[in-house]
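Just scan my protein:

. . .
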Amino acid sequence: MGMYHREKGQEAFLVLAGECTLIVEGQERRLVAWDFFYCAPETEHIIVTSDAQSAIVVAVGARGRGVGGVALHGL
């Protein structure tokens, strides 16, 4: 979905199908269908898949409404 980052606004993610890996604040968590992740502002995160994984994830957040975000390069 992008690079490991944090946003100034809150975000929420719902896995609709499949499985993926959430990396949040340096810890990995496996997510499967119907798992929900609420991401508080300034929480470092990314959702990724391995070669053996695929997923459909709905992401909702405040991006594009003047809130902005901060990318964390090199993590």
DSSP finds no helices and seven strands in the chain. The mean pLDDT is 84. The longest strand covers residues 11-24. The two ends are 15 Å apart (CA to CA).
